[in-house]
Write the structure tokens for this entry.
Amino acid sequence: MSDSVFFNPSRRSLFKVAGVVAGGAALAACSSSKGASGNGSGDTGEAKKGVGNNGQVGKGRTGTAADTLFIAGFQWGNPTTFNVMSPTAAWPASSNVLQAIFETPLRWNILTGEIMPGLAKSYKVDGLTITLTMQDNITFSDGTPCTAKDFAYTYNTGKANPGLAIAAFFNAAESIEATDDKTVVIKVDSTSKNVGQVLRLLTENYVQSQAILSKIATDKLATEIISAPVGTGPFTLGTADQTQVVLKRNDKYWGKDFYGGLPVMSQIIHPIFKGNEDANLKFANGELDICQTFQSQIWKTWEGGKPTGTYLKDKPYYIPGGMPMLVFNCTKPGLDNPIVRKAIASCIDYGAISETAMSGYSATVQPSLILPTGAESKFFNQADATANGWKFDAKAAEKMLTDAGATKGSDGIYTLNGTRLGPWKLITPTGWTDWNASCDIIAKSCKAIGIDVATNFPQQAECTQAIQGGTFDLGHWYVSGVNPSSPWARFDDVLSQDKMKPIGTPGFANYGRWKNSEVTALLTAAAQATDDASKKSAYDKLDALYRKEIPMCPTMYRPDEFYEYAAVNFYNFPDANNTYAPPMFRGAGNTWMYKLKKIAG
């Protein structure tokens, strides 16, 4: 647990991001005094921290706009409901985002891996029992108290309605009970014994009002249209339409003592753009304070004199947290052969994906389901990855095929064991520009070694249906990112046998329907490990099996979030030279709302 809601910059774990955080801090120190006096009328002459990567700040805004935080990248369509239980909930009622209206019992820090207080001021793990103690005097925005009973009731809706997303809680927990108004007791599932997964879900699922939820029929919880959400957070919903979502600060917010005050801004406005390009243009023009979009060559904004910034001051600029996957449909002839899968994994030009598709925002990936940076790095086995993994080597990839007996036809495509290697379609949603570019590189790499792969970019809904239903050849898709239960959650997403569904039935793990009799016991051992040494031993075995079979293959290390800010009206944003909070728009990252400073006035 943390003694402070703000990140302690002395923690050595800050520098575990493969040296990039430390390097970024050193670079920032060389330029942090540039423009230190600022340009705003509110300048007091102090050296300003948390400014643009070029050391610059803007002049600040006047009037109501000076007290407004403009944010983009979280809501792209008409906000039809603010029902947390709905799969189409609008920001900020959508899952695992900035805790402006709704809050979670616990919060998580991507840099340290630390689980921090939220609505619960403390938690204790005793074997398979987790006990949480609530903060004092929590209230909902309608003035009613929020107690442990609201907490337990919210989570128990998942037991009453297995179709709700929160029902996943009971895959890891047997029960949750409020023993009094301040205490919640959770019993971890006695079979899986996965304490880490329970803690993860406590950092991701919001607490709601029992008085409000109990008035909604159980079978309507996911479909109820809610236009006036009531949460415990520091903001309430002002207005929402197809052009923007406006939040108003709740000056009676319970957490002002916990956080040391109210958020600096009196309102938050999220304009709704048609796509990344529109948002990126507004960001570059200084019309947004915070943005969470993919921006090709973002460094050009600060090189062009804009006071824009990222957490790291040099490539990859962002903290890695996601691992998009090339998913092999292991039920398809040809792709059911691990030799073919390894040949494809070995032929991909990962450097081109990093530099071209990802603008250098990704290090070259390793043959592992464990991120070699950050909190997961202690479990990464470089020696085994080097000895038994793969890397970009087109000649070696083609030799794997010929050594296995593959023969090349007059069309340049190999046949192995009577099966032509393709044509296979590689799908990912249209409009996911960096993912689309990655797929083009993958298809080109495959063609170069005699495997017939072509890209196809359907609409997101169609692509989701195909991948979840197992009716695809190859897919570029996502699995669990960095979170309190990683890397276990990622191994489970990729390898799980228990969650695998028949072709045509939507599944949410092991999309390629890869089958293996060893993996369940290995996943269980990793989930039940109680110390880092035993966890690493279990992960070594899982990763070794993964490298042997390759049901999916990572293509990039995608930023956890595209944490981007522009010091046009506020400064003191968290960055590698100003480390009071992690670069997050959720979880522990919400502390920056209380620490920003206005440039003017």
Remarks:
- The chain has three domains: 1-73+273-318+561-601, 79-228, 320-559.
